[in-house]
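Margin note from the TA: students keep mixing up input and output lines. Inputs are the sequences; the output is the structure of the whole complex. Example:
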Amino acid sequence: MSGVAAEIAFDRATKRYPGRAEPAVRELTLTVPAGEICCLVGPSGAGKTTAMKMVNRLIDITEGDITIGGTSVRSLDVTGLRRGIGYVIQQVGLFPHMSVADNVATVPRLLGWPKARIAARVDELLDLVELPAADYRARFPAQLSGGERQRVGLARALAADPPVMLMDEPFGALDPITRARLQHELLRIQHELHKTIVFVTHDIDEAILLGDRIAILREGGVLAQYDTPAALLAHPADEFVARFLGADRGLKLLALRRLDELALGPLDGAVGPTAVSTTTLKDALSQMITAGARSLVVTDGAGEPQGVVTLEALTDSEA
Amino acid sequence: MTVPLGEQLVAQGGPVIPDFGEGSDCVVDNRLFCPDWVRDNWSSVLQPALVEHIELTLIAVAVGFVLSLAAALLTHRYRHLERTFGSFSAVVYTVPSLALFQLLVPVTGLTVTTVEVALVGYTLLILYRNILEGLRSVPPDVLEAARGMGLTRRQTLWRIELPLAVPATMAGLRIAVVSTIALATVAALVVPKGLGYPIFLALREAFNTEILVAGALAVALALVADALLVVAERALTPWARARRVT
């Protein structure tokens, strides 16, 4: 179970705790296609972390099943299962007495890789998370900033090249600038590696940014809706989902698309404020409002006008 | 002169007549410190006593450490044992050393065993508490990460929990070693061994030089042992002093 990404399928997965009437997760059924990021979001008590931890059996499934690449997680040896799944948590949990290199080498060592292969892999991973190996290899966790620690945590989870990654609010404890940087790093890395990732967050904006699909859970561990960010924003299934997405979900939807995805109107010698075609629809709208204009001239990267986008085109874009 | 002091003290009747035997004026006059006496008696009295003292201490701390480690590991696994081990070691610790010797002599006699049982007993509370504290000091997120990455319970213990318990354990060892060195002087009540023996003999005769030198040796031994443990701790835990370079 390494290398190639694998599909994760929840099949009526349920978690009940003894002595509690209501389950923490109720008959969760959803499929995360291989190589995609699935964000689990929802309010506290919606069971998102519980659902994630059932995948690597840190929490045992009460009823139903979860399969990875078609194999039930219940049929696998639990330590073998966990070594085949990358695991990243908010507090990182680096081993304080081990150097960065030894932390990253944890799972390869458990798997009995030869020394030379481990050393090469550690350097490769540190480069991947943009911590120059020569500079960081020998450091201890106490010598790292919060962002650097989570980069090491990510490298450690990726060490044995697991097909599946579980990430529990990994950027939740970071300052906004570091968080944004790491979110984009994750997308860059995912673009290279194509892991199947279950990503727990309570931040809907993070989910929209990172998720290929988003599962919104409500109290009691019930799946409210599972869809792509654009579909969720355009067609929330009910009041709960709409509220969770926020009153500005229209703007969030506009932020997902860029001007070059729209059919532009003819130039016809139009003049006025300009925007490059890679601008998001949300930013284009913002620009119209601040400029008091009802249309923008869209230009290509070289500044050459391509066409016109109107306010109506924006408001109609998702209808 | 190898009769245990305890017996001597019991056997003795009337007033003690000081007898400093042959020696320099300094010794005969019983001045505060006579270097010539130290020179003359180093290899016959002081050095053997020092070596015996080190032996008594090493055995006591080593046995105490093994017992405490075992008890702490069991407690770490089975929490309910804490009351038993904790109370036992605390009760032993509260018994005055003289009383403890008195209690043990009928069982183990006037032997080194009696001394070691007592000395070991006094190390248990400190070592057990410190090792257990060390094992429990591992942050929960570290344990969760270990579990999530597929470390077994045993691997977590050996690779994570025990190494992280080293600072607390070493702190306990330092206290245990220094207090055992101090306490081992009382062993001379039971067996004529260690730095306590020359001190007791000298006390009876109020011989200043011997009291002073043997006492100073015990203090020096404690300081040296403590320093060695500090060095060992630093070598074992390079990570504990690692701080962020800004």
